[in-house]
Amino acid sequence: MAAVELSHITKTYSGGVTAVDDLSLSIEDHQFVVLVGPSGCGKSTTLRLIAGLEEADTGRISIGGRDVTDIAPKDRDIAMVFQNYALYPHMTVYGNLSFGLRLRKMPSLLKRLRHPSQARQIGRDIDERVKRVADLLDIRSLLNRKPRELSGGQRQRVAVGRAIVREPAAFLFDEPLSNLDARLRLTTRAELKRLHQKLRTTTVYVTHDQEEAMTLGDRIIVMLNGKVQQDGPPLELYHRPRNRFVAGFIGMPPMNFIEGHLEATENSPKLSFVESAPSGRKSVGGTGDGLTYPTKGFTLILSRDAAPSGGVPSSWVGRKVIMGIRPEHLSLRPFRADDGSVVSQPLQMRLTLIEPIGSSIDLYLQSAGNDQIVARVDAANGLVSSGPSSPGETSGLTPQLGSLVTVHVDVRRIHLFEPEDTGMNLSLETTPSGQPTTELAHAMA
């Protein structure tokens, strides 16, 4: 078991495509680190660079304090599990598990041919390790089968077992669950997590599935265009995304993004978010050729005073921003703080689609400014509120498709981003270096 260090690694392929761009990472001993991102973000290339299957153009790689940048893959003391399992089809499960050990032990075995008892001891050691790993993975009954006689989940366990039996310094997993069906992915994912808790071997795991990353990793590294967008514990990325890309990538359904601008709030030291409307105008009659009149979307008052001394910084009034709100922070009922006070604001939206998904229901909504918004509500009460839950609330009716519904927005959970696709989260108190982001950090939540 060992720490893994990457220092200023760059990898550019022919044609000028930079897969990894000046990447520096420090993975601690025993950590389970997940590299996640869309196809082409550089995560698999990074894993292959650690394994030695790709050669870095610049930078250094060390495993367990040893510089392995120029060392062959077989001498790096790592074990890799591939997406396609890479089992030897002509060997039994036992043969697949023991092959790597026998290959590594062969020089010692040849030297000891004059001492049969020592050679037999090496064979017994290999046999013991193979059977111990087989018991750990519950594949002891499969040792005499060949890969073609196994299910997808069984083959995956054999591939993992072949890595474990070597007792390497680090495990490298390259999307190992991608070929499994949804149900088997869930069970195998749980098995991998339990396995890491037992072995505590440093693990680097690559996936494009953000749910897989959230459930498996002690730490998640989100990548885009060969660069790290954010690095931290799963819940930190979920609750405090550094930028708009991370916010949209982590979480399912994805965060809702709504274009708008900031305005001063009348008779209040608070800022308001105002949704943009398409072109700012609406046509009468539906033809687009007749009379038009100005329109704008909804308005939300943000929850922290814009300036403790009163007043709104003039530099922020009129600024264009992207508001982000997660589907689970929208509800058909008001959100309440621990003291019972309402901490949400109601908005009228048109219901366009209902998706029941078991314990929850996804509502697809259209806002006043024509933005498409998803709300995830608890299915325990269906879409009908059984009655007023407190004074001042009214009982609800089952909403119909195309009808207007009242949606409550938890204003404590609003994020504001710069308009770019990877625009920074202006709602965070500090940057990664610990410095205040902007004045707007003092104007929210």
UniProtKB/TrEMBL annotation:
Name the segments for region: Disordered.
423-445
Q: Does the keyword Transmembrane apply?
A: no
PANTHER family xref list: MALTODEXTRIN IMPORT ATP-BINDING PROTEIN MSMX, OSMOPROTECTIVE COMPOUNDS UPTAKE ATP-BINDING PROTEIN GGTA
Q: What PROSITE patterns does the entry give?
A: ABC_TRANSPORTER_1, ABC_TRANSPORTER_2
CDD domains, alphabetically? Answer: ABC_MalK_N
Compositional bias segments (type: Polar residues):
424-438
State the name under which the record lists this protein. ATP-binding cassette domain-containing protein
Instruction: Tell me the lineage of the source organism.
Output: Bacteria, Pseudomonadati, Planctomycetota, Phycisphaerae, Tepidisphaerales
A molecular function GO annotation: ATP hydrolysis activity
**Which biological process annotations from GO are given for this protein?**
carbohydrate transport
Q: Name the SMART domains for this protein.
A: AAA (SM00382)
